[in-house]
Amino acid sequence: MSIAVPFPEELPEGYQWLSDEPPFDPERHLSLESPSQTLSLEDLGYSPEEIQDKATAFGVSEPFRILSKEGSEVMLETARRLRTYSRRAGNRIENTVRGGCYRSRWLRDLCISQDVNDLMASIYQAEISPHTMPVHLGHLNYQPSKLEEAVDKWHHDTIPLDYVMMVSDPATLSGGGFEYFVGTKMEAEELSKQGKTPPRDRVKAPKFPGPGYAVALHGNMVVHRGAPLTKPGERITMVNAYVSMDCLVDDQSRSRDLIGIDDPAALYAEWAKHASWRTQNRLQQIIDSMAFDQEPDQVLDQLEFAANDLLKTINDMKAGPREAQHYEQ
Ligand SMILES: [Fe+2]
Description:
Layout: H1 26-29, E1 38-40, H2 48-51, E2 58-61, E3 64-65, H3 69-82, E4 87-89, E5 93-97, H4 105-111, H5 114-124, E6 128-130, E7 139-142, E8 152-155, E9 161-166, E10 178-181, H6 185-193, E11 203-204, E12 213-217, E13 224-226, E14 236-244, H7 264-289, H8 296-319
Antiparallel strand pairs: 1-2, 3-12, 4-5, 5-7, 6-14, 7-14, 8-13, 9-12, 9-14, 10-11, 10-13
Fe (ii) ion binds at residues 155, 157, 219, 224.
């Protein structure tokens, strides 16, 4: 079992389970396959120094199958039922449902599935867990009301690792593809400063064979978007997040961006648990292996490193909301 922080037993205030859901059955609902190809962060242009403290050197994969036909049907039905809770997420996504795993037991069980976790770990080549913060599990995006709007603008994620799954059938859509930039987030930032988006010859749009297929993504490092639809249609994607079990690597999170987006009833407690889990592991490393005969400064550096996530969390919570980072369309 690879679980960083267990999914809470109790629901936050204001949430109720959907009624009449089928139980999640891995035998019937999953059809796990490995991607045929992957790109590393190096392939995208990152240097060894930029990669060394990250969760993994993995970048992005070709689409691979997660759900069976029956699983895809339940996923679509679940997403349609949850749509009534969709809201705007800052200035980036018009229609999104977060916290869906507090409403659908089926979605929760898919998102914390250890079978899926094992597959994702083999793809990322890292020991991972479903994300410590349930607001990052089973994130749903729906098409915007205006056709010309990107479903989700160019960005990199506030979380380290995830997959993006097609929930609606991509064959029924014109446009609306998932796209990623074959480049770094620093390059995307430079382009953005010049009022430009990633050039088309450096954008890849993987072809998804059907609903229930996903790409694995080092979401915090790979610049990506949901492109605009060219004809009206139902476009739903699901994003599920993972964290590295190695708490000595960079957190790769921007939880402060979630203030004003996620329900505070859930967000703050989840965020506190995430930072506590990371800090606990870093402190444990000191208890286990702090050497004698070090300079006081060396000891201090290690203590500061261990406390870093907790202090940053406290500062971010005190500082309050800021505009979520993204590049233009
Ligand atoms: Fe994303």
